[in-house]
Write a structure and sequence with these properties.
By secondary structure, the protein is an alpha/beta fold. It has 2 domains: about 1-115 and about 270-290, Rossmann fold; about 120-265, Dihydrodipicolinate Reductase, domain 2 (2-Layer Sandwich), CATH 3.30.360. Helix content is about 30%, strand content about 30%. It is built from 9 helices and 14 strands. It has helices at about 10-20, 50-55, 70-75, 95-105, 120-125, 170-175, 175-185, 270-285, 290-305, and strands spanning about 1-5, 25-30, 45, 60, 85, 110, 135-145, 190-195, 210-215, 220-225, 225-240, 245, 250-255, 260. The strands form 2 sheets. It has an 8-stranded mixed β-sheet with strand order 8-9-10-7-11-12-13-14, covered by helices on one side. The chain has a 6-stranded parallel β-sheet with strand order 3-2-1-4-5-6, with helices on both faces. Helix 4 (about 95-105) links the parallel strand 5 (about 85) and strand 6. The longest helix has 16 residues, at about 270-285. It is globular and about 60 Å long. The chain starts with a strand and ends with a helix.
């Protein structure tokens, strides 16, 4: 199997590690931004789309900066190969023409949202609608972490996350939280958004985002930030008779002080699971749980349209 990476940053290297743990006798290529980029073991560097066109690839992984996704995917359409696209789909909602082109050409797409493979969220998805006697009144989502800790060896102010012109911002970086709510509950009937950039980080991108999603029966509140030192990532489901507290970092669900679900899995373990899903979907299932059309709906929830 021959696999093409567009971009080979930190997230792409997680996908590369996952692929190496699954596949044998595969060839890996990466379209790099310049000849001075660092070499990665077992990866062949390419420096132009002309070099890409000279080879056949089984699929491509789009993992360059978010703001470059549209231009990259447009170039890849001519190769008519499956696309594994790192979230988010793009940094702008002005891509309806691209979504239509992908659909019209029958290109297989999967937009990577690895939290869909986290055990505690799958427990919620499996059980939440099986509890007929319970009424869901309220959902609260929180994800706060400290951006300088994300990439300790780099100046965080130079990262795409910190720069709005590169497509960065906490609402985009942590679109996972919006994605899993869409996965659990579908499309909301109304969305209210509030974005701010005024924390002590002093960055140009959004460092605080607050959403209210109306699901016509209950509302979900989502708070995202880049500046919390003690990382917290939770989902709370408030029923009429009890509350489920879901901790994504410990992979547990607790209600009334009792653990009703627990897993040793950690978020890092979801990357190989996600890649196995993608490979099986391309080869066997022939359908994707998160196409560009799905991801476009989440992007519109995120950014508005």
């Amino acid at each position: 199997m021959r696999i093409l990476f567009i971009g080979l940053g930190s997230i792409a290297r997680k996908h590369l590690t996952a692929l190496k743990s699954i596949l044998n006798n595969s060839e890996f290529y990466a379209l790099r931004s310049g000849i001075n980029t660092d070499d990665i073991s077992d990866v062949n560097n390419l420096y132009s789309f002309d070099e890409v066109a000279d080879k056949f690839f089984d699929f491509a992984i789009v993992s360059n900066p978010t703001s470059e996704h549209k231009r990259t995917i447009e170039r890849l359409l001519e190769f008519n190969i499956p696309l594994f696209i790192e979230k988010p789909l793009h940094s702008s909602v002005d891509i309806e023409d691209l979504v239509l082109a992908i659909n019209n050409n029958g290109i297989f797409t999967y937009v990577a949202c690895n939290l869909r493979f986290l055990d505690c969220l799958n427990f919620v998805k499996k059980n939440i609608f099986n509890i007929k006697e319970k009424r869901l009144n309220e959902v609260n989502v929180y994800c706060g972490s400290y951006l300088p800790d994300w990439r300790p060896n780099l100046d965080f102010r130079k990262s795409y996350s910190a720069n709005s012109e590169m497509g960065g911002g906490v609402h985009i970086d942590l679109i996972h939280e919006l994605d899993y709510l869409y996965w659990l509950f579908g499309k909301p009937v109304e969305v209210i958004r509030k974005f701010k950039s005024q924390s002590s980080l002093s960055i140009s991108s959004t460092d605080y985002a607050n959403y209210i999603l109306d699901f016509n029966g209950f509302c979900a509140s989502i708070i995202l930030n880049y500046y919390r030192r003690d990382t917290k990532r939770t989902l709370q489901l408030v029923f009429d008779d009890e509350t489920w507290d879901v901790d994504l970092l410990t992979n547990q669900v607790v209600t009334q002080g009792q653990i009703i679900f627990s897993s040793d899995q950690r978020i890092a373990d979801t990357y190989p699971l996600q890649m196995r899903y993608f490979l099986n979907s391309v080869a066997v299932e022939k359908k994707s749980m998160n196409t560009v059309a799905d991801a476009y709906e989440v992007l519109k929830i995120c950014l508005g349209k």
